[in-house]
Design goal:
There is one protein chain. The longest helix is centred in the middle third of the chain and has 16 residues. Strands 3-1-4-5-2-6-7-8 form an eight-stranded mixed sheet, sandwiched between helices. The protein is built from five helices and eight strands. It is globular and about 50 Å long. Strand 6, helix 3 and strand 7 form a beta-alpha-beta unit. 38% of the residues are buried. It has a single domain, classed as P-loop containing nucleotide triphosphate hydrolases (Rossmann fold). The chain is an alpha/beta fold. InterPro entries: G_ENGB_dom, GTP-bd, GTP-bd_ribosome_bio_YsxC, P-loop_NTPase.
Length: 206
C-alpha cells in the first residue's frame, strides 16, 4: 500500500471538459480510452475528483447523500473534441442506507453494463473511507474487475483523519492484500498522494 505524503498542488490539476450526465453506457460520448471513478456515498469521491481535475464546469454536489443517479463524464486534456483522448466517468455513489433497493440494483446493472460494453475501459478507481473495511459492494466490484481483466485501484481516502497508530494498523491490515490491483492511501483535504493518483489516471490513457 502506498502511504507517502507528497503534496499535489492546485496548479497540477488535470485540465478537463465536462461532457454531461448519462444514464447508461451506450449514451456516453466516444473516447479512445476511459477510466471510471466509483465509490460509496460519503467516501469523499466528489472532493477527491475536484482536487484532481480542473474542469470548465463541475456538477453541484447534493447535500443529500445517495441522491445522484447518473454518470458524469469528463474529457481529460485541453481538446474537448478529441475523441482519441482519455475520458473519466464518475459513477453515482452507492451504498447509502436510505437509497432505495431499486436504485442499488440499478447501480449494479449500470456498472456491469458499462464494463461489459465495447468501451475501452482501462481502469477503475474505487474510493473508500480509510476508516472502513470493504463490504459486499466493494468485493463485488473487485470480482467484476478481475473477470473483465480491468485494473482496479483502491483509494483509501481521508487518511488525514487517522493518527500514526491507526495509519500503521491500516498498513498492516492491507499488507499482502490480493483482492485489489493496487492500494493507495490518499487525502483530498490534505492533498496527500494525489500525485500518484494523477499519474495512475493519465497512464490509463496511454
Amino acid at each position: 500500500m502506498i502511504t507517502g505524503k507528497k503534496v499535489f498542488n492546485d496548479g497540477d490539476r488535470i485540465r478537463a471538459t465536462y461532457l454531461g450526465k448519462f444514464s447508461e453506457a451506450k449514451l456516453l460520448p466516444p473516447a479512445a480510452t476511459e477510466i471510471a471513478f466509483i465509490g460509496r456515498s460519503n467516501s469523499g469521491k466528489s472532493s477527491l475528483l475536484r482536487a484532481l481535475i480542473n474542469a470548465d464546469k463541475m456538477p453541484q454536489v447534493s447535500a443529500k447523500p445517495g441522491s445522484t443517479r447518473l454518470m458524469h463524464a469528463y474529457r481529460l486534456g485541453n481538446d474537448a473534441e478529441n475523441q482519441n483522448g482519455l475520458m473519466l466517468v464518475d459513477f453515482p455513489g452507492y451504498g447509502y442506507a436510505k437509497s432505495s433497493a431499486v436504485f442499488r440494483a440499478r447501480f449494479s446493472e449500470m456498472l456491469l453494463d458499462y464494463l461489459q460494453s465495447k468501451r475501452n475501459v482501462r481502469a477503475l478507481c474505487l474510493m473508500m473511507d480509510s476508516r472502513r473495511m470493504p463490504e459486499e459492494e466493494e468485493l463485488e466490484i473487485a470480482k467484476i474487475a478481475r473477470q473483465r481483466h480491468t485494473s482496479l485501484l483502491l483509494c483509501l481516502n481521508k487518511v488525514d483523519q487517522l493518527n500514526q497508530k491507526e495509519l500503521a494498523a491500516l498498513t498492516k491490515t492491507w499488507a499482502g492484500n490480493k483482492t485489489f490491483f493496487e492500494i493507495l492511501a490518499v487525502s483530498a483535504a490534505k492533498r496527500q498522494n494525489l500525485d500518484y493518483l494523477r499519474t495512475f489516471i493519465l497512464s490509463s490513457g496511454t
